Amino acid sequence: MTESTAGTPVTSARHVVVVPNSINMVSVLGPGDEHLGLIEKAFAADIHVRGNRITMHGEPGEIALAERLLDELVTIIRTGQGVTTETVERIIGMLRAETVLPGERPADVLSLNILSNRGRTIRPKTLNQKRYVDSIDKHTITFGIGPAGTGKTYLAMAKAVQALQAKQVNRIILTRPAVEAGESLGFLPGTLSEKIDPYLRPLYDALHDMIDPETIPKLLAAGTIEVAPLAYMRGRTLNDAFIVLDEAQNTSPEQMKMFLTRLGFGSKIVVTGDVTQSDLPNGQRSGLKVVEGILDGVDDLVFNRLTAHDVVRHRLVGKIVAAYDEFDARGGFAREGREPREHTP
C-alpha cells in the first residue's frame, strides 16, 4: 500500500498511499476534502491527492501515523459504516494519546456495535471504552472508574440491554445512592416515585436512548427493568440479573459491601463512579475509593479506569476535565486556601 522514494533526507519522508479502487475517495477525504484538512492539520503533513493515490511529505514519524490513519479509515469504510469528521478525530486521538496494545486497532473500536435502536447504534469510541466493554463480557463484576462524560454508565446500561435482549439475563436492575436526600427519603413530599425520580432521572434518560420509549413503562411494571435507590437493595439476593450501580463514589464502604454481596447466580454487576466527585458528608470515606484496595486480585472481578481522553461529550468537556485534573495536581483549592462550593455532578 506504500511506496518510498530513495535518497529522501532522513528528516523528510515521502510516502504514496494507494487507496483500493473499491473505496469511494469521497468517503476517505470527506465532503469538500474536510477529512483531508483534518489530517493535514493533525500531522503537519503536506498531502496531495490524484485519483486514488495520496502522496504525503513530512517527518517520518508523522507520515507513518498519517498512513495508519488512512488504513484505519479504509478498514472502517469496508465494514459499510460511514466516516464522519468525528470518526477521523477519534482515530487521531487514539493514535496520538493512547497506548495501542498488540492486536488492538482503532477501526475495531469504532466498528463494534453494542446496541442498535431506532437507527442509532451505540459503540465504544475510545480504546479504553472498548477495553471496558470487553471486561464486562469477560467478568462477573466490573468497575468503571472515571470522570464525567467517559461513557462508563451509558456503556454499562447498553450492555445490560444487550444482555436482556439476548436472554442472557431475565431482568435489569439500575441503582444509585440518593445521598443528597439522606437515603431515607422519608421527609421528602410526594409519593415514593416522585421522591426518588430526580435522583434516578439520568438512568431513565439513558434507557430512552436504548429502548423504544413506549415499551419502557411495560418493562418497569413487569419488573423486567427496575430502577431504585441503593437503599432498596438491602436484604435481597439478585439472581439472573444485570445490575448497574451508578454514582458509586457516593456509597460508604458498608454500602459498597452490602451491594456487592447482593450478587446471585447467573448475574453480572457493573459499578461506575468518579472518585473525585463524592457528595458524601465531610470526613466520610467513599466505598469506591477503598474497594480496590480490598478486592484487588479477586478472581472474576476487574477495575477499569477511564480518563479525560475517553470523554465523549462535547469536545470542550474533555478540555474542562483535563484542566481540572491539572488544577488538582497543582494542589487545587487547598493550595488557594479555600474550599469549593458543594455541587451536584
What does this entry show, briefly?
With 345 residues, this protein is an alpha/beta fold.
Main sheet, how many strands, which sense, barrel?
A: 6 strands, parallel
Distance between termini?
48 Å
Instruction: Give Rg in angstroms.
Output: 23 Å
Rounded mean pLDDT score: 86
Backbone shape: globular
Order of helices and strands: EEHHEEHHHEEHEHEHHEEHEHEHH
Number of helices: 13
Task: Name the beta content range.
Answer: 15-25%
Which range best describes the helical content: under 10%, 10-25%, 25-40%, 40-55%, 55-70% or over 70%?
A: 40-55%
Structural class: alpha/beta
The strand count comes to: 12
The oligomeric state of the chains shown is single chain
Unreliable runs: 1-9, 341-345
Please state how the strands of the largest beta sheet are arranged side by side.
Answer: 9-8-10-11-7-12
